[in-house]
Each structure stands twice: as structure tokens, then as C-alpha cells.
Amino acid sequence: MTSWDLRGGRLVIASHNPGKVDEIARLLAPFGVATVAAGRLGLPEPEETGDSFEANAALKAGAAAKASGLPALADDSGLVVPALGGAPGIHSARWAGPAKDFRVAMERVHDALGDLDCNAAFVAVLALARRDGEITLYRGEVAGRLVWPPRGGRGFGYDPIFVPDGHALTFGEMEPGEKHRISHRARAFAKLVDACFDRG
Which residue of the set 5, 76, 101, 117 is catalytic? Predict the structure, then answer.
């Protein structure tokens, strides 16, 4: 695996999800990386045809890097519920429907589970693509449990129904700084930092 040093560079965040763009930009900010969202560059959102978080993240990062001529960072993430056979998983965004209404998605999860108190996990895979096509992947997971009804107006997606292990608040109730410290995306990002930023 090639060592990358992104400090001081410009990077495309290959997402059209404002919540993800903001969260990734916040994680990168301390390293002096200038970020630009794919939407701001007018880049299309590729169809996610992969069969795993890794495949979809790589697809999005590679497409953005090729189209922009800049390194690109993509995230594919989702809620994995063992009691639902791993669903919604890589289809987490699709459960929100064409309007991307995650209240609908959370209700679908609740309807599928009933009042079952069950374990779940958030998974995030970050894919970093060079202009030459090289892609590296970084995976992070955080285990927890689902609650109903949704709690908290912070975060995005399924955050209001997910309580990470060892905590009493949902991701939707946590201060952003606390969530960013322990989230699945933060864990994937920590691996990226180890590989891509010169600590010297």
C-alpha cells in the first residue's frame, strides 16, 4: 500500500449527502485539507451497483477522481441489523425512498422489527482514489442497539434510533464532537489518517 500525504492538498468529497459532506469535512479540517463536494463541481452521482460497502465506496471515489482530476474520498456506510439479515446494509439510503426521507427509513426498520430490542451496527468504508486510479479502503464499525421512537435532531440518517455500546444517548442526541470521536466513520477515518498523513 502506497503512503499518501494529503496535508495541504485539495480533495473532492464524493458524496451528494450534505450530512456526510459536512461530517467528512470536519474530520479533515484539522489536517489542512481543502475539500470540495462533488455536487459543487457538478459531478454526477454514480449508481451504486456494488455488492458491498467497499465496492460502492471505491466506485464513487474512482468516478469522482476521474471526472475532477483531483484525489477523491468517498464513503459508503449503512446500518446493519443482524435480525434483518444484515439489512438495510448497503441499501440503507434506498430504504429512505426517492425523497431520501430517513423518517420513512427508520419507520421501515421499526415495522420490520416490531418492538424487538435488537443489536445493530453502523459500518463505514472510506475509499481514497488517486488521479491515477489507485484506490485504498478503510473500514470502521461501531456496535450498538436500536431504540424507538427516534430521539434527537442532530446527525443524519438513522442516527436518532442508534445508541452505541457504552452510551445512553443516540447519535441523534449527541453533540457532534462526541459522535465524531466514536462513530464508525471516525474509526475508518483514524485508519486513513495513519496511512495518509505524515506525523513527522
Answer: 76
